[in-house]
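Example 3.
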Amino acid sequence: QVQLVQSGAEVKKPGSSVKVSCKASGDTFSRYTITWVRQAPGQGLQWMGMIIPMFDTVNYAQNFQGRVTITADKSTNTAYMELSSLRSEDTAVYYCAAASDYWGRGTLVTVSS
Amino acid sequence: EIVLTQSPGTLSLSPGERATLSCRASQSVSSSNLAWYQQKPGQAPRLLIYGASSRATGIPDRFSGSGSGTDFTLTISRLEPEDFAVYYCQQYGNSRTFGQGTKVEIK
């Protein structure tokens, strides 16, 4: 089993960037695919991208290409999702998940001037 | 990108009734790479079904998945009070996409 602890809520200005972390414990981090999913208020789930830390392979959703960067630090068992050029529509809860079975509790990112 | 369309948008049922949720893909989902998730308010999604029909660890057998190609179904044989939630399908055969969700509410 793996436990995922995400960083705290953020408030950002339009045009800025946000970097959310997801720290894993309890199992070997690099053996899992780490996925990032977001959910705008009252809306459905939106897949953003994923990384396989063992191979440093990343795959991004078309909608976020060029704006999202997903990385992983195997030495600290931590994955990161950075989203740039923020706009109000990026206000959402951002989740990380390991192998689809284990989920973080989510990080609320609010984009507001 | 594969688009998933779920129906109905909302399902109003009573505890003990059977729930049938549909997920249709815009193109064939390879190797039945289709999953179902349950989400309750304020919680992260929970994996129920993967590979179209395999239950995830700890998922009760009242949940079952079926289908292949472009048409998939999640069935809850007898609704328990804790089953009232929103359900999402997700394909992972060609990148990843989610359906828009079906809300199962108490009638």
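The interface with chain B takes residues 35, 37, 44-47, 50, 59, 61-62, 95, 97, 100-101, 103-106 of chain A (CB under 8 Å). The mean pLDDT of chain A is 94.
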